[in-house]
Fold this protein.
Amino acid sequence: MPEADAAASPAPVLTLDAQTAERVALLAVIRDTSPADVVRRLLSHLAASQGVSPAPGVAIYALYANTRIEATFHPSTSHVTIPDGPAQGT
């Protein structure tokens, strides 16, 4: 949204119960950011975990018992997927 439009229209208001507001505020302090950014990041993480526009995976590997294990790291969900072999899965 252009800067002029943002100044012309007020931001929407989100009403939270006291416990949720305290948790969001705590996360904001821990992350050294604003409560709005905490909510934005949580929603982005949720969208990514639901399969909405996933980020591409990063090819990784590990050596286990002298065997190279190929895998993919998904930054949006912090999950690792092993496509085949005895450790196959997420």
Q: What stands out?
A: The chain is about 40% helix and 20% strand. Residues 1-6 have pLDDT under 50 and may be disordered. The longest helix spans residues 35-49. Helices lie at 3-8, 18-31, 35-49.
